[in-house]
Amino acid sequence: MDDSAELPAPDHTAPSGVSDAVVDAVGKITEALETCERARGHLYSFHQLTGSADIELGEAVQALRDAGEGEVVERIERELLGRNVIAGRWTFQIVEDYDDNYWSLFRELERDVRERLVGGRRHIYEARMKQRERTEGEAGHEATPDDVPNGG
Asked: Is the pTM higher than 0.85?
């Protein structure tokens, strides 16, 4: 293939008439959503780690009780085991609230902005960056998977 013909796939280019400023701004909104996605992942980690800690605590309490140390674990069982982590909520409720009231709206609005301003296309900003930074004709720097010699 002629190296000069290596261009981003059409779904990674801005529609005709869309300014660089709009592409940059849409890219920033998408980047903000990606940060939100990372925060959501951390929230799920928090949920799973806190749940695991509670299960491990319960196992330790039972082991101490089995060892005849019931008096020592009485307060832990009463005050900490199964306790809400935020007033009235276990971590699954925090995750659900985040998903229902923030993350899902963020995704919806980011998609709406892309639909309205760049025809729904994703990662135009990144595709432009790739085009600027890659070395045309160099193996491993192809514009698209279709440009890889012999199918990769």
From this structure: no
| Residue 23: both structure tokens together | 């592409």
Residues 6+ apart with CB under 8 A from 134: 141, 142, 143
Q: Three-class SS string for 78-147?
A: HHHCCCCCECCECHHHHHHHHHHHHHHHHHHHHHHHHHHHHCCCCCHHHHHHHHHHCCCCCCCCCCCHHH
Three-class secondary structure of residue 12 per DSSP:
helix
- In this prediction, residue 74 has a pLDDT band, given cuts at 50, 70 and 90, of very high
Query: Phi and psi (nearest 5°) for 111?
Result: -65, -40
pLDDT above 90: residue 2: no
**Structure tokens that stand for 17 in this block:** 């008439």
Helix%, strand%, coil% for the chain, nearest 5: 70, 0, 30
Q: Which one-letter DSSP state was computed for residue 76? A: I
Phi (first) and psi of residue 25, to 5 degrees: -65, -45
Distance of CA 3 to the CA centre of its chain: 34
